What does this fold into?
Amino acid sequence: MPLRYQLMLLFLLFAIVPSVGMGLLVNWTVERVVERQVEGHTMQLIGKVNEALNSKMENLQNMTYLIAFEPDVSAFMDKKITGDGERRERVEASAGQVYTSSEQNRLYGIKQTLQGFTTLYPEIAGIVLVNGNGDYISNEMYPRTQQSLTQEDWYRKAATQPGIFTVIGQPQERNMTTHVRYKDDEIVSVARSITDETTGHVKGAVLIDLKLRSVSQAARNVTLGKSGYVMVTDAGGQSVYKPEQPLIEHIPVSWFTSGESGMFTKKVAGEDLLIMYQSSTFTGWRTVGVFPAKESISEVRQIQFYVVSFVFVVCLFGLSASLWFSRSIAQPIFRLMSYMRRAETGNLSPGRWSDRSDEIGMLGNSFNRMLSQIRQLISLNELRERQKRDAEMRSLQEHIKPHFLYNTLDTIHWMARKEGAHGVSDMVGALSRLFRIGLSKGQDYIPLRSELEHISSYLQIQQTRYRDRLQYTLNVPEELQNLYVLKLLLQPLVENAIYHGIKGRRGPGHIVIEGNVNQGRLHLTIQDNGAGMSRERLAEMLRLLDMPTESLESTSPKWTGKSYGMLNVQARLRLSFGSEYGILLDSKLGEGTCVTIVHPLMRELPATALPPAELGDHQDQEKKE
It folds into this structure.
């Protein structure tokens, strides 16, 4: 399939398939989000109603504490003050004075306190105090019969929970009424027993009747959707408050199976109802939200319509855009293909491109630059090949000079020996060996034996110059002399020992060259008893030795100074074997310097080196000459 049609198909797939998938995903997500929002909003409203009810009950609880703390109330609970019930009994028993003036004042004070609470909180229908004898004090409430109030269910519930605030709920067949004569379904009762602080025994109880309208006020103004509502039930499932025309009259307790809060859907009278609830640990009541499930679906349907419309528009736009994009991309690619086929034939002339600044235009410009660089590289490669041939010719010519030089020195050596000039003969012979081993036919690795011969020749020449001021000792075991080492390792370090150590010392100096194997590595040590280094100079040298090889020339001005030889050896060792090999330096001012070369054990030449047989060819040739 041509690229143009492939791009059209890909554009359609990438436009239509994701749009359809996104539509389905949005539809599914919106449905879930709307449900979660409805649930969250409803639970939030239910929580607010619950908080309002808890706040009212907390006010009543605080009111019971304040009443119990009154000294006259404590006296009444301790039966030191006669209440309304005992007064009536006294009136029935005799027509005499039933209260002393002190008792009458204290009783009046208690009633004034109760009257103050009912005035401050108009939603309270009545308050009654009952002590252990069944005697009571109240402004609004009184018993219907002579039966003791301690036998009432509300009193027993309060007494079973000493000192704990208890929500009784709506009273049923209670032996208490009010002057207003509220019906049982018009009030909600709460109670708390009053105990002795020392013994914990129940001395009496406080009963408060709350008008139901204060409870309904918190839930009446909350609407859920168009026809939903909030109702309040007690722990047994009985309705504390419900609207006048509820969607469901009674919700069984068995439906609430999710703990203190939750939601579920039930079909009631052919209609799916979504029921959410939240229980109060303080009152034990449940605040329940009820609304039809279909009310949350209507909003989802509207969003689905917009999603389907969006997907249709995207598909239509994707079809048109795919035609245009496929043509705009495929056409310059075909042009690039033609230029590349032309370049394959060897024609490296640049192609003609439009002024496009997008990726296609950048690709064409890059192709032209690549062709230009290829032409430059071809020209540069031809130039380097010519330079390489010239360098090889010069190298062959330069190798003739050292060969001629040490052959000439060897001839002078034999002529001096023939004439009896043994000093000159030895000097010229040492210099000849020095050149011969230093050349080594271009080989980088030589046997340690040859390196020792080279340094012996160098020391012999220097000893002729310095005479008795220079002594040296070579102490390298015979079994180590067959190992291979980098060429010209010892000469730069020995030269440093002579010019910076022995030369600066008063009197004769001594250089010791030793070799040994330490931890699987070859150690070559050059130690002198010369002038040594100061701490500052030693620290500077150690810093230079630790620097990376590639940055040493650019960062250290002393690279070409008097440290050149040692740093050169360090660089060659690290470049050849790695940073774990190199030079160890130690020195003390006035005592001397010790330089240790850490070199790998090489019992064979590296694969890139010349065979050992070629190293001795020039020696055999010289012997023949």
User: Anything to note?
Assistant: The radius of gyration is 56 Å.
